[in-house]
Amino acid sequence: MRLVFDDVRLALPEFELNASFDVETNALGIFGPSGAGKTTLLEIVAGLRKPDRGRILLDGVEITSLRARVRRIGYVPQDETLFPHMSVRGNVTYGVGQTFLSGQTRMSGPHWIDDLIDRSVAKLSGGERRRVALARAMMTNPRLLLLDELLAGLDDARKRQLIDLLPRPLIFVSHERDEIAALCEHVVSIDRGQCSPPASLPHTSFSLASRPQLNR
Amino acid sequence: MIAFTIEMALVATALLLVPGTLVAWLLARREWRGKTLVETFVMLPLVMPPVATGLILLQLFGRRGVIGSRLGFDVIFTWRAVVLAMTVMAFPLFVRTARVAFEHVTRRYEEIARTLGATEGRVFFTITLPLASRGIVAGAVIAFARALGEFGATILVAGNIPDQTSTIAVSIYSLVQLGEDHAAMSLLGVSVAISFAAILASELLMRKA
User: How many CB atoms lie within 10 A of CB B189?
Assistant: First the structure.
């Protein structure tokens, strides 16, 4: 994926978000302390927030003014966002069309949520919720996946379990340097809205070579 | 007459359900020019004397009224006037309750649905409406209760024609006027019982929402 932020600016209550970079990568980390503007940056890419100015190009195509609905960018936010009035199946198949409404096809998600598919959302643990949210975003076959603090608060075994499931390309937001190092090829640091130029990261124990690619 | 009143209140509630939900959603989720004006206008019947609202309806829906002259059927002093008065008086209560219900739906759910490719219509029908449904039902119950007790506007536009436009509230009034206190008291009992049940149901729904 080639991602270009061309002088993107957005005024926030406490500072101005200011992002300008051009990076060719399959896994971009956004690193910074809490409240630095990481989530806002993801929301701009997802199409949930409009920047005051600037352009965003994904693989050479400008997406700045596209609606979230047509961007085909999967977003797994940090906060609680599984639809509470639907089952796990309803959540996971939501983006695949009217399936869960008509009930004609009993679709399920990827095999790694087989054990959860008929459960009620309210009874899932924190780790299970993230698996379901990830599966839901992946089911729409997005061309880019945005992950906000996906691994925060999980133990090492659960982190590794999730990391192994992640397709590429992705943008991964975290305030933990280790998580970024484990997952990403490049990193952009952000503090009070100011983005650093992208830096490349050495390959680590979580080798990236064998990961499945998302369809373009 | 008890059955007639309940029937008319049900019709009124059914009539305001769709437009009321739409207005509540527009007020809760969209910014548009003239929003404050519409908001104020919708709430007017809540604070105006019901008789004054009735007088406005009489002007509009009378045979020579702006609306009444174009309808091709009589409204005033028919069962339609009963429904009209009930609908107009209950509308603001429903909109208020439904609006709060919509405002309580976390916008994040709607946003996520959009990133999953959902159209605005699909977001509304699969996310917003189901998550606000308890509040909307509670609003409908309150509106129904308000419609049942409607008096001021009803007496003006529908009058008190036995077996045609006579509702519980209007009957209580005329029975007291005629000195038939005993009959008035038993109707009072019925009125209290229905209202109590409706408000209780609405409170229980809101608590679970």
Answer: 10
Domain that holds residue A161: 2-84+126-200
State residue A84's pLDDT score: 94
Q: pLDDT band at residue B207, thresholds of 50, 70 and 90?
A: confident
d(C-alpha A50, C-alpha A56), whole Å: 11
| Two tokens, residue A80 | 């609680």
CA distance A109 to chain B (A): 14
Gap between the terminal Cα atoms of chain A = 10
B residues 80-109 near A, CB within 8 Å? 108-109
Q: What is the pLDDT of residue A216?
A: 42
B80-133 residue pLDDT tens: 999 999 999 999 999 999 999 999 999 999 999 999 999 999 999 999 999 999
Looking at the complex, report in whole angstroms how far the Cα of residue A68 sits from the nearest Cα belonging to chain B.
Answer: 5
Listed as ranges, residues in chain A with pLDDT below 70 are 80, 97-109, 203-216
Residues in contact with B111: Cβ distance below 8 Å, sequence separation at least 6, in sequence order: A48, A68
Size of interface A-B (CB pairs under 8 A): 50
In this structure, what token pair is assigned to residue A193?
Answer: 């809205």
- A71-123 confidence digits (pLDDT tens): 999 999 998 689 999 999 999 999 986 444 444 455 666 788 888 988 999 99
Name the residue in chain A with its Cα closest to that of B109: A81
Say if CB A76 and CB A150 are below 8 A apart: yes
CATH for B121: 1.10.3720.10
Q: Which domain CATH number covers A138?
A: 3.40.50.300
Share of chain A above pLDDT 70, in %: 87
* Chain B residue at shortest CA distance from A93: B116
Could you give the CA distance from residue A206 to residue A209 in angstroms, rounded to a whole number?
Answer: 9
List the Cα angle A44/A53/A180 in 5-degree steps.
35
A169: cis peptide before it, omega within 30°?
yes
B127 Cβ under 8 Å from any chain A Cβ: yes
Total number of domains in chain B: 1
Shortest Cα–Cα distance, B138 to chain A (Å): 18
Please list every residue in chain A whose beta carbon sits closer than 8 Å to the beta carbon of residue B127. 83
Nearest to A46 among B115, B126, B131 (CB): B115
Looking at this predicted complex, what is its ipTM?
0.87
Greatest alpha-carbon span in chain A: 50
